[in-house]
Design brief:
Blueprint: H1 7-30, E1 40-46, H2 49-52, H3 58-78, E2 83-89, H4 93-98, H5 117-127
Parallel strand pairs: 1-2
Helix pairs in contact: 1-3
Length: 150
């Protein structure tokens, strides 16, 4: 419940999740590292929890929502420099525990189970290749058909 959370809880979660993305990219951009190359692509990892919501871990989902907004705003800001910025969710032990998911049966067809890390890797790699030159500010959802908005 929000009423049980403290400002310290919020600050810690934002520092742990969002600020690491911001700080790393901010350091790189201040050094004009991207100016040395013709094309760049940045990819942020998030979670479906920012899109579908969950009653637990509200601060964590809010911090991941900040990553989504940061992705879109940074994409607009970086477009003139030829830098593409995208994001996508990845299932982790935390999301599995939060959503009460059981161990997946890898023998099930792809659309009847959660996607594995190995299965989404090529989707993410696609976004950093020249084949995705016109894709920026987007959140890719390779999730086996889970409908998400945003």
């Amino acid at each position: 419940m929000v009423s049980q959370l403290t400002k310290l809880d919020l600050t810690f979660s934002l520092m742990l999740i969002f600020f690491q993305y911001f700080s790393s990219l901010n350091s790189i951009m201040k050094k004009n590292f991207f100016d040395q190359f013709a094309h760049w692509a940045v990819y942020f990892i998030g979670s479906a929890g920012a899109f579908i919501g969950a009653s637990l871990l509200i601060i964590i989902w809010a911090a991941i929502g900040a990553i989504v907004s940061f992705t879109r705003l940074l994409a607009l800001q970086s477009k003139p420099k030829g830098i593409r910025v995208n994001a996508g969710p990845v299932a982790t032990p935390l999301t599995e525990k939060t959503f009460g998911e059981e161990k997946e049966d890898e023998n099930k067809p792809p659309l009847e189970r959660n996607v594995s890390t190995e299965e989404i890797t090529l989707s993410f790699l696609f976004l950093v290749t020249d084949a995705a030159a016109q894709i920026t500010g987007q959140v890719l959802h390779p999730n086996g058909g889970l409908i998400v908005n945003g």
